[in-house]
Amino acid sequence: MSLSSNRKAILLFLSFLLLLFSMCASIVYGYTDTSWKMAWDAFFHFNGSNEHIIIQNVRLPRSVIASVVGACLALSGALMQAITKNPLASPSVFGINAGAGFFIVLAFSLFSVNSLQAFTWIAFAGAAFAAMLVYMISSLGSDGLTPVKLTLAGAAVAALFSSLTQGLLVLNEAALDQVLFWLAGSVQGRKMEVITAVLPYILIGLVICTIIASKLNVLVMGEEVAKSLGLKVGTVKFFAACAVIFFAGGAVAAAGPIAFIGVVVPHIAKYVAGNDYRWILPFCAVFGGILLVAADIGARFIVMPEEVPVGVMTAIIGTPFFVYIARKGVRAS
What we know:
This protein is mostly helical. It is 78% helix and 0% strand. The chain has helices at 5-28, 36-44, 50-84, 96-111, 116-139, 147-171, 173-183, 192-219, 223-228, 233-255, 261-273, 277-299, 310-332. 47% of the residues are buried.
């Protein structure tokens, strides 16, 4: 779908309004029966009632965290797909989420770390380590780095870290009780401090995206072409990888390893925005927020009064799309 810049700007604005509406719906709907008027009164005519407290202290942070985490996962997926030229690239598929999650469980289980700020840095370290491990493994061999090898290496690293995480939890039942729901990917019960702790690093990632967006348009034409046009390919890839680590590490620290957002959303954004990353990245941020907020709302009602972790919802949504992209890639090859 090819749209003019004006139409893209209008669609991006309308999508942003849809994101705001989704966030408002997330504040209104849930197990506790509330209304739109009650939500309005909670912010402008607060009376200390249980409903108003839930809206302000539970649902508002949850809505904000879901939108930010969804945006981060979608942006990291778009960047990874650009620098690897792999349509299946995402933090979950390449093991980056699993690496960040393993490092957090390791710190919690063996060193009793429970500081939110510490979790943030540990998640970044785990994401970086997993990314380097995938890159090293997929670079082995005479044919060098290829999309297929990247996917296989990512799957192997994800399986490795997932197995190590499960092994740690088996040895530490107390840790299992506290992190099991988090490992499934959830924004339930999160406080606003969770997102404020990672916000500075997310903002750095957004600045990097703004700077390299036009350069990604050159990079996706091929490394040889990009080098002939004077693009410093290694520098662009390095900063894109840094942004991926900031986004993925921050998302895992805030909500646990949530899958498939990074695979699904970039393809939707490309369908709308074409191949221009100056538009793809903003659309990814907005669409990612919408998808995760909507999934979180749905997670509240499937087995009500219990809640399904939002990571389960995104898996239900994303798995058919992942299979479609994979089959499409096989046919194209």
